Amino acid sequence: MEEKKKPARKKLESTREMNRIMSEYFYGLDQASKTGGQKIAWCTSVGPAELLRALGFQVHFPENHGAMLGSTRMATDFIPEANAIGYSPDICSYLTADVGAFLKGVTPLSKAYQGIEGVPKPDVLVFNTNQCRDVQDWFSWYARRLQVPIMGITTHCGVNEVTESHVASIARQMEELVGPLSEISGKKFDLDEMKRVLALSRTCSDLWKEVLDTAAAVPSPITFFDGTIHMGPAVVLRGTQQAVDYYRLLLSELRDRIKNGVAAVENERFRLYWEGMPVWGRLNAHSNLFAELRTNVLASTYCNSWIFTAFEPEDPFNSMARAYTELFIVRSDHYKEMYIKKMVDFFKVDGIIYHDAKTCPNNSNCRYGMPQRIEEATGIPSLTIHGDLNDLRLISDEQTKTNIEAFIEQLEENR
Ligand code: SF4
Q1: In total, how many domains does the chain have?
Q2: 130 belongs to a structural domain
């Protein structure tokens, strides 16, 4: 029997450099944790990381750790540990996996980085509820368990238009964090340092946007699955020179690909948009499945969530408040629909995949008729797959495969 040739997925050369800076970041945190040389803040992924860096903290992001638990397929083993202490299997599986792993004294960091034995010990926990309430509950658990101060920002939700009063209320909350954080870090707040960090974060964000926008090329030089890996520096190193240098390198590789007509998925035939969380434990499987169907899932709301075009270094607090409130996840369905329509158009996609992640209603936008409304308005068909970001017990691989194959067939027939 003739062996079916698997379509090539082009590996990005820049990955090596990304791994290097991510490793430097994790060892830096570990060093600070072991020596106490630099204070450590834990921060939510779209929390005020720039303020923390400007105050001299090293910053750890528990959601990044949750995603590592997911992508190493360790999460499912630890979720029951958190369930056993009263955290429901229906709530965020980043939270339950992370808390469960902590209770068991296990971290994927130890496997990836020799000598790292645990997550870095926090001196303070800082959240922003702009994405969900779960982050506050998650950090509150650690605050009680580790007897560490917790503080944060309580954000509006379902925002249609971001107004000056939204911005002012968030900016004031951020300013109020400065005093207590400065006391913990032992470093006086320096406005020039804040502006410097924010300028780096803005550049990082602009470059990250340019990286993601390369997917508009036909064929696309990048996939959504690449994006979920290469967004690492935009999440954990924004506000640093390393992240800026890294995205310059990645962007130049992608531009070279475009110049030479190199496709991320060989013989790209269909182009899809991904709406919702990735399935971390199935990144590779999904990437292969789509590539075999000569389909590139090339853009997503998820990876775009670390684009903060509102950052203005000369007006740090107001612009951070605006950027962290303009996020997709904070917005009304009306805004979200307009946004997705714009993306679908820009990236020239043939269809949309909605991931209904059981434990993250906040990032599942298919529960109130949005797919149907967008399809009606644009004629772009969609498929909803049911699963989860981390809890593999909530995923049926067979069902997902069958549904995706049928969806591509439908696209083929409609062409
Ligand atoms: S947005 Fe979803 S995945 Fe992220 S922390 Fe909140 S519930 Fe968890």
Answers
A1: 1
A2: yes
Q: Of 282, 275, 318, nearest to 298 (Cα)?
A: 275
135-153 pLDDT, tens digit each: 999 999 999 999 999 999 9
3-state SS, residue 114: coil
Instruction: Give the tens place of pLDDT for each residue, 246-297.
Output: 999 999 999 999 999 999 999 999 999 999 999 999 999 999 999 999 999 9
Residue with CA nearest ligand 1 atom 2 = 360
Name the amino acid, one letter, at 170.
Answer: I
* Closest of 361, 382, 385 to residue 372, by C-alpha: 382
In a domain, 386, yes or no: yes
Q: Does the residue 6 lie in any domain? A: no
Name every protein residue with a CB atom under 6 angstroms from any ligand 1 atom: 63, 92, 94, 131-132, 134-135, 277, 360, 362-363, 389
User: Ligand 1 mean position to 357 CA, how many Å?
Assistant: 10
Cα 254 to Cα 72, 223, 375, distances in angstroms: 27, 11, 31
| 3 within domain boundaries | no
Ligand 1 atom with the smallest distance to the CA of 389 is: 3
Give the contacts of 86 (CB within 8 A, at least 6 positions apart).
none
Continuous segment of H or E residues that includes residue 62 = helix 62-71
The pTM for the full model equals 0.96
Q: Of 390, 411, 364, 400, which Cα lies nearest the Cα of 101?
A: 390
The rounded Å distance from CA 94 to ligand 1 centre is 7
Residue pointed to by tokens 């949005």: 370
**Pairwise CA distance, residues 45 & 227, whole Å:** 16
Range of the domain at 42: 15-414
Confidence of residue 1 (pLDDT cuts 50, 70, 90): very low
What is the residue-wise DSSP string for 155-214? ---SBSS--HHHHHHHHHHHHHHHHHHHHHHT----HHHHHHHHHHHHHHHHHHHHHHHG
